[in-house]
Amino acid sequence: MIRLRRYLKPYILMILAAFLFLFGQGMGDLLLPDLMSDIVNVGIQRSGIEHSSPEIISAEGYDMLRVCMNVSGQKLFDNSYKKVSTDSSQFRSLKDEGRFPGLSSGSKNVYILKDGADRGKLDDAVGDASFAMIMTAKDIAKKYSGGKTDTFQSQNISDIDISAFYTISKMPGFSELAAPNIIQSEKADKMITGQMGIAFCRMFYNELGINTGKLQTEYIFRIGVIMVLVTIAGAVASIIVSFIASKVSAGVARTIRSDVFKKVESFSNTEFDRFSTASLITRTTNDITQIQNLINMGIRMICYAPIMGIGGAVLAASTTTSMSWIIISAIGLLLAVMIVVLVIALPKFKIMQKLVDRLNLVTRESLSGLLVIRAFGTQRYEEERFDKANSDLTNVNLFINRIMALLMPVMMLIMNGVSMLVIWVGAHQIEKAQIQVGDMMAFIQYSMMIIMSFLMIAVMFILVPRASVSGARIAEVLECEPSLRDPDAPVSFGEKVRGEVVFENVSFRYEGAGSDALKNISFKAVPGKTTAIIGTTGSGKTTLINLIPRFYDVTSGRVTVDGIDVRDLTQKELRSVIGLVPQKGILFSGTVASNLKYGREDAGTEELEQAAKTAQAEEFILSKPDKYNTPISQGGTNVSGGQKQRLAIARALVKKAPIYILDDSFSALDFKTDSALRKAMKKYTGNSTVIVVAQRISTIMHSDNIIVLDEGRIVGSGNHNDLLENCEEYREIAVSQNSDRKI
């Protein structure tokens, strides 16, 4: 995968944008449990009251709290509140607002919170004072009841009339009784003191006629709206990230696929011998799809999973550290499971891609050779061969999928186990007033987020191994240097190309072969003449002509065109002057016209018709209803072998090249068509160099020069009559074809 990282460079900005959106989405998702906790803790349990320190408090309430504070608390309290007298305009304004109905029933001075007050410290001070007040009230109640009853412990504090506390705080000697409790309040649990402060704040608000029910509703609605907005923002961010991930992954896959195709186009036959066609198809399709899937999922998960995992762990620990051991244990167990799965599955991914190659190979051979299979009645054998390749791939897939299928239930078991453990431990801590219900609920959600982040990582563990194998296979193709390369300083033909082809002591050996396929080949093919090559099967005829367009490079010696070594020319320029008809006529899906124009795209209708007429293809083309627009199926399967050969010859003729190479291109033609075609070609090619490879003597007997090959060597050269007299190998071929009757 690292070897393909350059393909991500054009998309760096898009990937960074995706990461920013993911970060925003992650922060929003991490905010939701905290907001949910606020709804439970503040909105429900505290009636929407966020702070222990009231925004407005009666003078009696102010005095009661102040007397229960230490010196520093009293100083903070005095600096945080401003007294509003009943005869002041501000008091009348507060009264007219209607928010505080209790102000209209009496003439009580009030204190209002100053702007900029430190609510955090003030909440602690009010909470401590509330705790001290409650404890002192309990002590006084116990003292006067003889220790037998505890009025303030038998009911909810909020249900007690606030005036009872005012009365107690004004009792003689209250300050002395409260002093020990003030000291104790500083050491008490802040959660407990905070809850007591909220209870007194609610009583202060009720005293002034504030509708706490409305406060609660407004708070829950406000937090709910925030949660909805955060959720919508997260959804929008997720959609944008999905769009970016899809665009980047599709773009990278398109570029890789294009580069692989271009690289394969530059391969010589040597590279095609190294990579099978089936393997190249798999690498161009299935392997690149694996890379695309990894990038698509990776952009969305590789960044998002750490945000959720790390952020969830930090926030869970900040919510309550007492249950952090649960998350640590779950993470350790998850890592152990994922490592075991990875160790087992990774080797199988490498095997799977090779089995995909094998399946493609068998499928391609079966489809290509369907006629042969039917002719020999080997359908059953091919079915068994396909079943074997298919079963091998299926078994490996099943093994991997079973391993991965175990991963999800194990993850869910851990997830549900963590939830149960958090509830069990959290319930005990709630009972001891160590945490609140909302905190426990938030901790559960953070725990789920952490586990979900590991689930995402688990998905990546599934994708990465297979994609890494695919990436290595793709890189292997892209990094393969073609054995045939254009020269650094190429030579050009110039304005006019004569087309003279010369072989000078040429020898050639296939890569890995033990002996030369061609040995010391020397001959000249001149313009305006036809040079024929004949020989027994395996004598090297096709190998020889493949050296002219430089499908292979000679091992020794050289091949020249107009005196220029073909290795000194660019492959494009060299092949632009050659009209080739390969041994196996290949047609492409399209129409007759599109196949003929493959030789020269700008060819006109008259040129197509002239080439078709010369190739003896005009008759059957015109017999079709659509004529030159007649569809040609893939590989030309809807035309006969002879028609395919004639169309291939016509395609080469359209090119009007200085050199024509016809590799056994008359084998499917009858003798009449063969003779007519050769006569027409002689006139059409004019001053071009024509090199013909043939098996039949009748096809080449009128050639200007005939070269006879035997086991890679030239054993005879000359015209038909000379070879019959002087070349034993040629005479044997002629006799075997009964051509001696034409002598």
Written description of the protein model:
By secondary structure, the chain is α/β, with parallel strands linked by helices. Among the domains are: about 55-210, no CATH class; about 495-575 and about 655-743, Rossmann fold, CATH 3.40.50.300; about 585-655, Rossmann fold (3-Layer(aba) Sandwich). Helix content is about 60%, strand content about 10%. The protein contains 26 helices and 15 strands. The strands form four sheets. The protein has a six-stranded mixed beta sheet. Strands 5-4-7-8 form a four-stranded antiparallel beta sheet, with no helix packed on it. A three-stranded antiparallel beta sheet has the order 1-3-2. Strand 14 and strand 15 (about 715-720) form a beta hairpin. Helix 11 packs antiparallel against helix 16 (about 435-480). The longest helix is centred in the N-terminal third of the chain and has 55 residues, at about 210-265. The model is unreliable at about 740-743 (pLDDT under 50).
